[in-house]
Amino acid sequence: MNLKSTTFWSAIFTVIRMLSGIISIKVVAYIIGPAGVAYVGQFQNFLTITNSSSNMGIGQGTIKYLAEHKEEKEAYAKILSTSFILTILSSIVISILILIFHERLSVYLFHKKELSFVLIVLAFSITIYSSGQILMHALNGFQEIKKLITARILTSILGLISTIILVILGGVEGALLALIISQIIGFGILIYYAKSSTWFSKDNFLKHWDSDSFKKLSHFSLMTFVSVILLNVRQIYLRDYIIVQLSPEAAGYWQAIWKISELYLTVITFSLSVYYLPKLSSIKEKKALQQEIIKGYKFLIPIVLVLSISIFVTRDLIIYILFTPEFSEVRDLFFYQLIGDIFKIASWILSFLMVAKAMTKTFIITEVIFISLFAILSLVGVQHYDLIGMTYAFAITYFLYFLTMLFLFKDILLTSRH
Known about the structure:
Layout: H1 3-54, H2 59-68, H3 73-110, H4 116-141, H5 145-194, H6 202-206, H7 211-245, H8 248-282, H9 286-313, H10 315-322, H11 334-356, H12 360-385, H13 389-408, H14 410-413
Helix pairs in contact: 1-3, 1-4, 1-5, 1-7, 1-8, 2-3, 2-4, 2-7, 2-8, 3-4, 3-7, 4-5, 7-8, 7-12, 8-9, 8-11, 9-11, 11-13, 12-13
Main location: membrane
Membrane topology: Multi-pass membrane protein
Protein name: Multidrug transporter MatE
C-alpha cells in the first residue's frame, strides 16, 4: 500500500476511533470529572510503560526486520520467534514485579492504596496483551494494513462498549479496569485476523531462537526504553506535579488538551507508523529517501494545518461535545498546544529515519535531551504562567526538535533530485 492508500484506511480507523474516543471521554468526564480524568491519564501512561517493558521495546524493530525479510521465510521466522520468546519471558517478569509492588504503585499513581486491585488485574493480563502486540507488529511488518486497521476498529468499538458499562457501574475504578479489558479484547480480535495469514504458524513463533536477531532487536529495545518509558514516566511525573502544585482538576484540564491532540492526530501518527517505518526501512538510496520524505511533507503537513486551524476555531464546541462545563478552562490551552502539534508532526516525518535506519546512538541522545527539555520547561512554565505554561513548553520543545531534525538530516534533504 502507498501513503495515500494507507492514509485513507487510517482515516477510516481514525474517524471510528475518534467517535469512540469522543463518546468514551464524554462518559468518563461526565461521571468522574476532571480529577478522575487525570487518574485515567496516569494509568494510561503506566500501561504504556508496562506494555513496552513487557515486549522489551522491540516492536519497532520487529516491524522493520519483518518488512525487510517478508519474502524470506527462514529469516522472518527467526525474527518472529525471537520476538515472541523475548516478549513472553519479559511479560512474566513485569507481571511479578507489579504483583510485588502493587500497593506502592497505587499510592504513587493515584495517591491512594484502594485502587491497587486494578494493578493486580493488570499483572495477570500483561502476557495476553503483549502477545497481541507481537501479532499487531507482524501485521504491520508484513504490510497487511487492511487486517490491522479492521482489527483496531473492532477493538475500539468493543472497548468503547466495555468502557461505558464499567464506568457507569464502577466510576473511576471501572474506567481503569476498562483500559485493561480493552487490551484483552484486542488480543482476541488480532488472533482472529492473523490466523489466516501465511506467516501465522506455531513453528514461526516457537521454533527458532536466533542470537543475531536478538542483537538486531536489542538496538530497538534500547531506543524504545529510552523513548517510550522515559516519555511516559515524564508524563506521570508532570501530571503529579500539576496535582500537587495546582490541583487534580488542573491535571484533568491538561489531560483533556493532551487527549484532544491525540484524537485528531491519530490519522497522521498511525499513517507514519504503519506506512513510513516499513517504507523507509526498505529504501537504500538517498534520492529515494528524499523523494519519500518530501512526498510526506507535501501530503501530511497541509492536513495537519487544516485540522489544527479547524480545531482552534471550533474549540468551544469541541469542549462542549467532548467534556462538560467543568472543563471550560481548557479553551485557553489550545493555541500553543496546536502549534506544538504542527512542529511535532513536521519533526516526526524526519525522526522516523532514526528508527528505520537503526541510528541508535543519535536517537537516544536526541530523545533524552528533548524529553528532559520539555520536563524542565514545563516546571518553569507552571511556576511562572500557571497551567498554560505547559503548552508554552510543548510548542518550544517541538520547534527546537524540528530544527534539530532538519540539521541531522540536511544531507538527505539537500541531495540533488536530478
